[in-house]
Design brief:
Strand content: 5-15%
Oligomer: single chain
CATH superfamily of the largest domain: P-loop containing nucleotide triphosphate hydrolases
Radius of gyration: 31 Å
Number of helices: 21
CATH class of the largest domain: Alpha Beta
CATH architecture of the largest domain: 3-Layer(aba) Sandwich
Structural class: alpha/beta
Length: about 500
């Protein structure tokens, strides 16, 4: 459908219903209703909020509310706000050259009213695409009321010979320039209290007043905000009268399942590096490595030595996975291997992508971020290993270490060397096959699975390892490996291979 080019054409299009004319909140509501009826996916790329956050946002939009997204860092708050443009019409008619996107059929600024009166139906029409109808502002303490609302421009008044109170001397701030758009303020508590007061009128009455002069602009806006919880953000808070004027407060959260987190990480992390013009080798991330990387974030969020009020961003597993792949690349290139397959050792090598993503409690500060991060990785490996090897007999491998066997591996050990060193351990390859690899797979894949088994035994404290990556029997005393006749305890059936026998 051809878009009207002049005001007269626009009037006819509105009268016939070809071009809808409505406020932005009703526009978003109408488009949301259409998406719901068609069962379209709302906010593509947002994972884990299907039953929690997205329904609440839907209710806020259907209620014509302004709303605030309240949550810790790395919970996709800004991405959600940017996704709101999908609920806008593809094109919006505006007066060309107007700084506040005036409606040609009902202009609010004096300059546009004058143009409409002079040019009539011949007035040209400009069209504003939906992606340009989001105005974002990161709240910082230095933001002034003039930045947000506007101010008088004395130079403009002198040049035009106008009184300072004349509407044509106004310099519009961000809010007026966001007229008929979505206005998003990120980190609202960082906005000074007196500036927050300046938002009262726009939220309640829908207008702004510039510099105290009796000129009011009735603006058409959707106001959205993001904020961290007030008990963490010591820099400031959302003042109570402003919270009272925001229609809905929606709390976001971190992924609640490992699978949801893995989906987000796979979506965001740069992992597939071969074939996009980059002169590198093929990279492979086995599923258990993806699980370990994601579990690192889950373990960190529950670690008592890590500050829960600060949160552990979803950016942690994203950055960690990228570093894991890079370390696998480095090893493969150095050893002349054709495929870079990620290993558990690469997760430990990704410490620089982990330690900066959390804040420590006092006890954690005493131990240091590196030590806490290594503990978190070890716990994550143990959790994932237990999931892959539930009720699997591991006593043969543990017995090899108990009899004095030792291994010395590292994140730079070539796959062929790792297989050669571990080939003497009876039952190890059979355990590795539980990760869905076969003996005919590439050496790098088999080496990754074998290292996962060894690191899993270490994480479950069934064998020990020092900082030089030397594996040996744990120093803790063990019971003898049970025979078939000893398979049952006196009272309880204990499956073979459980940790009970190797304490």
């Amino acid at each position: 459908m051809a878009l009207p080019e002049h005001l007269g054409d626009l009037r006819k299009a509105v009268e016939t219903g070809r071009v809808p004319r409505r406020s932005i909140k009703h526009e978003m509501r109408a488009n949301l209703i259409r998406h719901l009826r068609q069962n379209d996916q709302l906010f593509p790329g947002i994972v884990g909020y299907e039953g929690t956050v997205i329904p609440q946002i839907t209710n806020a939009i259907l209620s014509l509310h302004n709303f605030v997204l309240l949550g810790l860092r790395g919970q996709a708050k800004t991405r959600i706000l940017r996704g709101l443009t999908s609920l806008l019409d593809d094109q919006l008619p505006v007066v060309p050259g107007c700084q506040i996107n005036d409606d040609p059929l009902a202009p609010v600024c004096r300059a546009c009213r004058t143009r409409v009166a002079e040019e009539g139906d011949a007035l040209p029409i400009a069209w504003l695409p939906s992606e340009q109808r989001l105005v974002e502002k990161l709240a910082t303490p230095d933001v002034t009321i003039a930045d947000m609302i506007g101010d008088i421009d004395p130079i403009k008044a002198v040049r035009a010979g106008l009184e300072l109170s004349d509407e044509l001397t106004m310099h519009y701030g961000l809010l007026p320039r966001a007229n008929r758009c979505i206005f998003a303020i990120n980190e609202l508590p960082d906005l000074a209290g007196k500036i927050q007061v300046g938002l009262f009128n726009i939220l309640q009455e829908g207008d702004v007043q510039i510099k105290g002069y009796p000129i009011r602009l009735p603006l058409d806006l959707v106001m959205t905000f993001t904020a961290n919880p007030e008990d963490y953000t010591a820099r400031g808070k959302i003042i109570t009268p402003l919270k009272d004027r925001i229609g809905s407060e929606i709390r976001t959260h971190y992924p609640r399942t490992r699978q949801a987190g893995m989906t987000i990480t796979a979506q965001e992390a740069w992992v597939t590096r071969h074939g996009d013009g980059d002169d590198t080798i093929e990279t492979v991330v086995p599923p258990y490595i993806s699980e370990i990387v994601e579990e690192v974030a889950f373990v960190a969020r529950n670690n008592p030595k890590i500050d829960k009020r600060s949160g552990v961003s979803q950016r942690l597993p994203v950055s960690c996975l990228e570093n894991v792949v890079s370390n696998a690349e480095r090893r493969a290139l150095a050893n002349g291997e054709s495929t870079a397959v990620a290993r558990v050792a690469d997760v430990y090598a990704a410490l620089p992508a982990i330690t900066g993503k959390f804040e420590l409690e006092y006890e954690g500060e005493l131990q240091g971020a590196d030590k806490i991060a290594r503990e978190v990785i070890r716990d994550a490996v143990g959790q994932v290993f237990e999931g892959w090897f539930t009720d699997v007999d591991t006593h043969a491998v543990i017995e090899w270490f108990d009899l004095g066997g030792t291994l010395e591996l590292g994140d730079a050990t070539p796959a062929a060397e790792l297989l050669e060193q571990t080939g003497q351990i009876q039952g190890l390859l059979e355990l590795a096959e539980h990760t869905r690899i076969t003996r005919t797979d590439a050496a790098a894949r088999v080496a990754s699975a074998i290292e996962f088994v060894i690191e899993g035994l270490y994480a479950r404290k069934l064998i020990s390892r020092n900082d030089e990556w030397q594996y040996r029997a744990t120093a803790e005393p063990r019971r003898a490996t049970p025979t078939a006749d000893q398979f049952f305890d006196t009272d309880i059936h204990i499956p073979r291979g459980r940790k009970k026998y190797y304490n």
